[in-house]
Amino acid sequence: MERKGTETGLAAMAASYEKFDPAAYLQYNYTPPRADFERKDSVVPWKLACLHRAFNEADVSGELLVDIGSGPTIYQVLSGCEVFSKVLLTDFLEVNRQELRHWLQDDGGCNLDWTPYLQHVCKLEGRRPSECAVKAAKLRQVITDILPIDVHQSQPLAKDALPSGGADCLVSCFCLESVSPDLSAFTRALGNIGGLLRPGGHLLLIGALGESYYFGGPDVRIPVVPLTEAQVCESLKEKGYTLIRLEVYTLPEDMKVGVDDVTGVFFAKARKN
Fold this sequence. Notes:
The longest helix has 15 residues, at 2-16. The chain is an alpha/beta fold. It has a single domain, classed as Vaccinia Virus protein VP39 (Rossmann fold). It has 8 helices and 9 strands. It holds the Pfam family NNMT_PNMT_TEMT.
């Protein structure tokens, strides 16, 4: 019975994404006030700072970085492309993979101008914002592919997608809790993606705290597992990760713009045992 209930929950989650609108999602979450680069308390700059620090720590290294559930965004690999020579983007939805291809091909079809993000990360790296075009070219050069993924499968990617040893690092932002019907599914998904990572490799995980839904488009309400910090830590431990650092951001009132009920965001840096 439990397995049937799980399958029903996963099918319901997949159905909730059928009308996902990348353009609307980007507008809701990746424009001001949530992406205000002049504000120290804006959530997007906080996420970029967490990722910048993690990717620049000496223990995060190797050749291959895999982004789990990229969505229609690239911000999560802007720092990683300076460390890893190969970056693989993945998403369950074809509309999101198409959005990523528009950026990769630089064909003018993107629903968001990522220039301010590139400029901000250049500043974090001690470079002039005007070097953002160089950074964009570097990222396009190291992205090796954009592939379908299903984090609820024991083998989330196609069999030959990765080298036999696995990826050196995974990054995943707002994916697992947003596609899981309950905490146990979230925890299993953590274990599934861990199978893509080499022993000793790192997971950089960003996710929502206290969120029960978000809008993936006009009238497209998508359920989310409302996580606590303790649950994130316990799920990582259960699935064979050693937590190195957990940071938490609390959403200011004016960042609660009516597109979700998130109360905070966590950043976790963990190592696969």
